Amino acid sequence: MTKPVSTDSDKSLWAVYVWCVSFLKPYLFLLVLLITSAAVVSAAELAIPQFIRTFIDVTLPSGDRSGYYSAMAWLAGIIAIMIAAGMVQNLLRRMLQERAARDLQVAILGHLRRLGFAYFERTPSGQTLSLVHTEVAAAQNLYRQHFPAMIGSFLFSALSIAIMASTHIGLTLIVIPCFLLYYVFGPMLERKASVSGKEMSQNRIEENQKAYESVSAAMELRAFGAHGWDMNRYNEKVTAHNRSMIRTYWYAYLRGTNRRLTYYAGAIAVFIYGYHLIQHDLLTVGGFVSFLLYYFAAMHRLTAVVTSVTEQKVLMYQAEKLYQFIRRKPLVEPPAEPVRRDSIQGEIRFERVSFSYDNGRLVLKEMDLVVRPGQRVALVGQSGCGKSTALKLIGRFYDPDSGSVRIDGILVRDLSPDSLGHALGYVFQDTYLFGASVKENIRFGQPDATDEEVELAAKAAFAHDFITELPDGYDTLVGERGVRLSGGQKQRISIARMFIKNPAVVLLDEATSALDNTSEREVKSALDRLLAGRTVIAVAHRLTTISDFDVIAMMEDGRVIEFGTYKQLIAAGGAFKQLAEGEAPRKEGAGV
């Protein structure tokens, strides 16, 4: 048996609703105009039954032809006003809903960016895409469908009931118990529909996440011949989503049936009592016809309001994920008073830096390291000793738990994001290329660079020759993630980005480890030219690639345990020599 939604849950949904509606606040003037135009349209629509009442009770019995023409002119005027106001209402409604929907999407994407790298590293991509696409689209339906329609329907219903009461209070009162019959089963059906809607929302997220996983793992699935296994898992998610969707709409149909039963029960009561009133000359035929028109219109709009409220409640279960997301605090907060530097010399200093991820186990343990401007330093050691984590702290992907990371004596956490971004250049093992042209991928390093500057950067990265051999040269589309290029070609484009960006500090994270020997030599030649005169910190497993570096820092268990040139460390005969000779040093408790 499904448990009813708790009061705390209702309060939570109300907070979500208030947050969603808050995106209309900047457009309050448009909202007022929309309400005004809706009121004019409602007044014009409501004037038509009054016209019919007068036409039946006065115009037809009198046989006055001039009165007939006058009535037709009034009807034409009312219709013209209704059409004109309706056009204005639709325009205002479209402007309001699209601007609020845009602002919601921008707010979600902006917050996604503020959450930074830590969020993406800890959250599956499929879940993020579902949030940005499915849940945002659901919340946008509040502006595009429910909220503006609810305002118009509520105004119309309120005015209709007021006119019905002025026509005959007894006839109005008799329909109220019929409408209240809706609430015998209505609340129970609403609760079931709401709970089922929440389950459907969660199942939709899981289905989207599995679809993304299947697309992303296409190569592995093909290599292992596991398409059947993957389809079975996907079918489970689709089946669960379909079942919850069918259940949700089943309750929605039952809710609608319940409303229609009360709707027509009230109509029968109006006919029975209305006949009695007409027979005893307590109500005119025209008055009864107009009342009946008001009743059907009011009940239709009133039930539409109830339906809209219930459907909005289901939407809020989906929007609740957005609400919780937007309230999520980033692990790395921007500095309150950022320090800006137009030029960076490139001194980097780790001072007793400790850091841990979510599991609480320290990856870096009071690490000390000093890199002088223009110095090339390699970080080496067993996997999990904290090398890549150190690079992340320099780029402020994370903040250390204790200790400090400084660039030119300034705390990294105090530097403005722009200053830090311009000072650092990353070359990763897996280079990401956008599905655009070669030229645009290089220009990514400096968006306002000219074509000549792009070409000079490509030549410096030894990429110009292979680019000119491509079908369209620099205008060749590289495909999604650069799928049309080899690993070495992608790396050289990445290095060209760094040339055009011209950072003071270059951070290399296994930049050549995934390349064959020929590609590695080509990329290394490009890197040697890029790194000249810059501060460099490189993470490397192939020790031959860093044998000519100024200094090598041997890391173990989150600390620098040896520091010196390649020859010095080999001569010392310690952990680095063991690593170079392929003998893993014996240790316990290595970091992750």
Distance between the termini: 46 Å
Q: Write the CATH fold name of the largest domain.
A: ABC transporter transmembrane region fold
- Output the strand order for the largest sheet: 6-7-8-3-9-10
H/E series, N to C?
HHHHHHHHHEEEHEEHEHHHHEHEEEHH
Largest sheet: 6 strands, mixed
Helix-strand category: alpha/beta
* CATH architectural label of the largest domain: Up-down Bundle
Number of domains: 2
Summarize the structure.
64% of the residues lie in helices and 10% in strands. By secondary structure, it is an alpha/beta fold. The strands form 2 sheets. It has a 6-stranded mixed beta sheet, sandwiched between helices.
Protein architecture, described:
The chain has 592 residues and is an alpha/beta fold. It folds into two domains: 20-326, ABC transporter transmembrane region fold (Up-down Bundle), CATH 1.20.1560.10; 348-430 and 502-580, Rossmann fold. The chain is built from 18 helices and ten strands. Strands 6-7-8-3-9-10 form a six-stranded mixed β-sheet, sandwiched between helices. Strands 2-1-4-5 form a four-stranded antiparallel β-sheet, with helices on one face.
